[in-house]
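Teaching assistant's notes for section 4

Start the section by putting this record on the projector. Ask students to predict, before seeing the second block, whether NAD-dependent protein deacylase will look compact or extended. Collect guesses on the board.
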Amino acid sequence: MGPKRVVILTGAGISQESGLHTFRDTGGVWSQVRLEDVATPEAFVRDPARVQAFYNARRAQLLSVMPNAAHTALARLDAEFDGELLVVTQNVDDLHERAGSRRLLHMHGELGRARCTDCAATREWNSAIEPDTPCPSCRQPRLRPDVVWFGEMPLHMEAIERALMACDLFVSIGTSGTVYPAAGFVQMASGHARTVELNLEPSDGWTQFDDSLAGPATKLVPAFVD
Ligand code: BJW
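Reveal the predicted structure now:
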């Protein structure tokens, strides 16, 4: 009998072959810019223009990349699997939904959305946010990318924890497993679920998984799904 309740966690590695940098690999985002300068609430208070420029560039780049075979395989699973399925992505790109995934939660937010720090309204946002761009709801120039920075609370945690406690298969794809709380998901699923890691190379926490398969996501994920 196959699994009935599946949770899949994805990280930057699943989008690497689409042309998006990961964070911690050689040449990754955090080797080009210090995370303390762009991915904390304190950085945004200190230098909002710099933080907006960093996200404006990534938002523009996102328009030029496409989902790859790994995203497509997960979308196929979404369409065909008649048990409970939840894809939890740490990625702020929209490649899962562009591939067709529907049962999906973005725990670190979305590059394609803006949030007003004044009135809290969020909305789709695919162009640049300049320091003087007004919020369409309250007209205050207080927009920020709707992403989760260090020290901020990740999104949808109740629904994610509920799914993890009930799942019988947990699969982690393309993540270094260094950022919490996502790095702790394998422990939450262990004991009642089979846990599998699919990553370019074994992550630091690979020994916590029942199985760890090494290779590129575009090869491993379609093979795992089919
Ligand atoms: C391939 C591949 C290919 C390459 N195929 N694979 C407990 C202990 C210690 C610290 C903490 C803790 N709890 C919380 C913390 C603090 C902090 C944290 O975890 N720090 C650690 C660094 C230690 N966590 C937080 O602050 C989080 N908030 C929180 O916990 O709130 C609770 C709270 C709040 C307030 C008060 C009290 C409690 C928030 C974390 C937010 C992370 N945000 C970022 C930026 C998002 C926006 C943006 O994109 O700019 O999220 S940081 C960045 O890292 C991004 C990613 O989602 C995240 C994870 O990275 P990921 O996806 O794993 O990428 P990489 O590069 O690390 O790994 C890629 C992997 O892919 C590698 O292994 C490659 O080998 C592999 N790969 N090519 C397959 N082709």
